[in-house]
């Protein structure tokens, strides 16, 4: 029933201005729409996220969202050059020179945003 509708992610921020500097400055996102409560960023395939203010930002111990990418290692290097720091989780799998972990048919890397939210880059190796 719900799979026939688009799904969007929410990204919580304690400080919207600080979060926008991270997402727009370091990740290069461009706002699609600004509202009183936050900012909408649009992505490929008609997907989007809503960055909004809440005191609960950064409290999840799991990934908030992920980007389905073509080359994790290349993006790691590009984002590191912009000051993004990647997490180093102790996980099974082969680690690339850039720091991505390959396991279960995917290559993945994680970073925290300015608010402490865990975000991921995932490359499906079985496509």
Jot down its keywords.
35% strand; 127 residues; single chain; 2 helices; 2,3-Dihydroxybiphenyl 1,2-Dioxygenase, domain 1; globular; 9 strands; 4-stranded mixed sheet; alpha+beta; 5-stranded mixed sheet
- At the first level of CATH, the class is Alpha Beta
- Whole-number radius of gyration? 15 Å
CA-CA gap between termini = 26 Å
Question: How many individual helices?
Answer: 2
Low confidence ranges: none
What is the CATH topology classification name?
A: 2,3-Dihydroxybiphenyl 1,2-Dioxygenase, domain 1
Corresponding CATH architecture: Roll
Q: How much helix is in the residues?
A: 10-25%
SSE sequence, one letter per element: EHEEEEHEEEE
Largest sheet: 5 strands, mixed
Topology of helices and strands:
Blueprint: E1 9-13, H1 16-26, E2 31-34, E3 38-42, E4 48-53, E5 63-68, H2 72-81, E6 94-95, E7 101-103, E8 106-112, E9 118-124
Parallel strand pairs: 1-4, 5-9
Antiparallel strand pairs: 2-3, 3-4, 6-7, 7-8, 8-9
């Amino acid at each position: 029933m719900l799979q026939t509708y688009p799904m969007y992610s929410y990204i919580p921020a304690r400080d919207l201005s600080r979060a926008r500097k991270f997402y727009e400055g370091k990740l290069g996102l461009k706002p699609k729409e600004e509202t009183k409560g936050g900012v909408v960023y649009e992505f490929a395939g008609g997907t989007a996220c809503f960055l909004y203010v809440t005191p609960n930002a950064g409290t999840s111990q799991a990934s908030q969202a992920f980007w389905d990418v073509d080359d994790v290692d290349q993006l790691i290097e590009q984002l590191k050059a912009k000051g993004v720091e990647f997490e180093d989780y102790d996980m099974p799998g082969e680690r690339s020179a850039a720091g991505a972990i390959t396991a279960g048919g995917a290559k993945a890397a994680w970073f925290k945003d300015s608010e402490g939210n865990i975000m991921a880059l995932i490359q499906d190796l079985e496509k």
